[in-house]
## 1
Amino acid sequence: MFIVKTLHTTILLTFVLLCSGCYTDISGKVADGVTGNPLEGAVVLAQWTKTHGKLGLGTNHTLYKIVETETNEEGMFFLSGVDTPFVDPPEMVIYKKGYVPWRNDRDFMHPTWRSYEKNIWQNKLTYKLAPWKEEYSKVMVEAFVATGILSFMVGNNKIPKFKALQSELRKEERAERKLKWEQKKKR
């Protein structure tokens, strides 16, 4: 009897430990950081990676899964997660034109894009985006949105909204660089 109880406890404990690392579905709401109104059409992207190598001896990451969606008229979104404990926590990006982009691992508003101590993401959370200010740099926003996302490893058909967003941000970034160069040339 003791062996059966021990076996059941071991199996249950193993299952709990394996599932504790699973990153299930992510849903939430995106809202205006000032008014609290829901934001329709915000692009929400999440990627899960696997870390390879040995800590201290160099590591690299490979893409395990990447998904995207847009928020609906109530600002709500849903992303399917992963059911394996053998991947890194998800990296998320939320962006809507006219707002400061949000990432769960870095702070855009900090001058050095300070990394958070741990990834900030939860299911059923309201993500508030701050309104964009013209003094912010489009060059910075394009780099901030794309940094760390392994989108180059997947085709356009897997994340078309994010690819279109990156393309639009690159055009704005080039226009900003051109304008600054022309202004500098006139001086």
## 2
Amino acid sequence: MDTEINEFIETTCLFSKGQIKPIFFRWRNHLYKIKKIVFQFHKKIGSEKIFYFSVETGVNSCQLEFNSKEQTWKLLKIFS
């Protein structure tokens, strides 16, 4: 079952050699460590480049979104 969340989150990530790698994110006062990036892709919407990450935290699988123009992260979905 997929649960739509679509909420802004705080994310710690690495930017290295043109790559973005989320490491942790905080949602509703809970810190989640990203154990594995399962899948990632990006798309361009006007002048914005949006990056999507499907990640595993050890507790849940989630979909994250990074908006490179706005410099914001969102938790889009939780998969269970």
## 3
Amino acid sequence: MNQITDVTTIIGQIGRDADCKQVGNTFNHAIKFPVAINQSWKDANGKEHEQTKWYTCVLWVSEKNTHLKSYFQKGSLIMIKGEALCNAWLNKDGELQSQLELRVNEWKVLRKAGQPKSVQSDSWALGDGC
């Protein structure tokens, strides 16, 4: 039986270099990095609005694939496909907090950090989530 899951695709800019941490006493590692998605629109009165949404992206890898963290550098433009989650909790003041998370299944670096906007990186392969 095939399992159907929601797949979300985002294109945005990486906010800082990825971290990679071992999870417990396993061989599993989580590569985490934030991605900013900028949205702009005009309201009914023609006024322009802009908003930035941040996703915490998580790529689960085995110990032998921890080198993949080097793909995720601050300032790079990236396309990511994965399962989107919204984590919510109450802070110490009782206020609702939330965080968007994307569990990465596939990615493609569209432009490496430091490259001019007109230069596209076609040397980076689509990842398989390892």
## 4
Amino acid sequence: MARKFAVGGMLLLSVVLLMLVLPGGANAAGTDPLEQVKATVSGILGVMQNKEMGKPDKKTARREKIMAYVSQRFDFEEISKQTLAGNWRELNTEQRKNFEQLFSELLKNTYIGRVEAYSDEVIQFEKEVFDGDQRTKVMVYTKVVKNNQEIPINYKLMAKNGDWFVYDVMIEGVSLVRNYRTEFARIFNQEQYTGLIKRLQEKNAGHEATKG
């Protein structure tokens, strides 16, 4: 049986919580990364709160709508590139696309159940800090509040064509990308590209088998 990827549950939960912040006067998406994130979140919450979409026979459609919003805000190509780091340069175009497709599927499959199990977590947006004068990258600082506990979660976004896209998530200083990078580097070094792809396929197949 394939060894489980060493991915912290809280890191994955942090990705979910980005999508579950309760909107506070969210405006239409604009140049502000905070407002773009809030607009995406509002759309996801709208799907989750729709009673019609909550019916058992609408489960697949509901998941598809949620994932459509996720895809709009996450840059899976950049996440894939930074996760593989130096190994990314060794891959050809087809291999890169294949890895990106499987890796993004893994991320989506891993936390869709958590999205649907959302309870009473609330996110407080603290601030946004741009990286340099060009303002092409930004860190959005947030806190997850539940049961009087606060967990700092920060999101790295980059600008592309007037929009902002998440390319990493950090919880208490631990990076989602770095966490996967360590595990994938070990697999890549031992089993090469084909071994890593096989692991991803097996992981995704396991998620498909449990869907219902």
